[in-house]
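Worked problem 6 (solution included).
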Amino acid sequence: MPSDEELDIGNLFGLNKDDHTKASLLKRSNVPDEHFIYPFSIHNKNGKDGLLETHQNNDYHKNCVQFSFDFQKTFSNPNKVVINIIDTERMKQIKENRERLVPIIESIMFLGRQNIALRGHKDYGILSSEPHSSETVINEGNFREILKFKILSGDKTLENHLKNNNAKATYISPTIQNELIECIRKEIIFKIIKDIEQAKYYSIIFDETTDVSTVSQMSLSIRYIYSGKVFERFVTFIDCHSSMDNDNEDSDEVDLNQIEPKLTGEFLGDIVIQMMSKLGLKFDNCVGISTDGCAVMVSTIVGAVQRIQQSTKNAIHCPCNNHALNLSISKSSTVQSIRNCIGIMEQVISFFNASAKRNFI
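Solution. The predicted structure is:
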């Protein structure tokens, strides 16, 4: 608490004062005691035409007095300040909006964790939560059905959100689903990168293949040790041909006679380096590279591994044992004796599986 000397208005004149000091000054009694001796002055202080009476009747004095009362009132009750009321309402609205998104995000995360597709035959329109509605016979997809189940289980926040909001502001459309999935992906990547930063050293695992949709994709995973445990985290899929098309757009030279783009080892290595740089991984902390044994990957001249090792000086190539085992089994299937052995094993398995009694035995 400031002393009387510190609150002397003469010592504070012309200085910037905080609100606490201002309030202390206004609450302080500035009327001197009865034994106070006023300094000599020739000014007329009393009477109708006295200087003090004239000063009190001026508008600037009345305004200042009113300002002081208003300041003390708002300082003592900050909840009644207009700007604080507006901020409080805004924070309340932000909190409500976030609470509305929680069950929607939780449903998306659940389906993603269980590797279940979100959408079905119908994925648009108003979501009906009535248990005996005629529309309930239509399967609206896993995502919308889970939202229905949440409402029927007593989630009043979600129910009020879907009932009271406009149909275009329910945040359950396919577009919003994709945007929320992208936000979740960024959060997962952020958590993985933070763990890698604490672990410091890591290895990368990547492979390129053509999926069922005939799109050439490269999968990138990162392996590291965190808190004494080994983690192997999938990071992303990379569309190789799409990346090549983007590079060709930036380049002035385009080979018009090229029928199919060729994915070289150097190009695949550049893609991995670009993705590592985009994720913010330190090249010097990469200590291992794992791929299959094809020439595009392991060529000592133009291979993807050799290209990556130019940037990651400490990385050592380690062939994937699973690929090696798969190639060995595939190669051994051409041997007659091995084929006969596998055929006999298949017949024995089929013999027992064909009958419930045999399978019970």
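Discussion: The chain has a mean pLDDT of 80.
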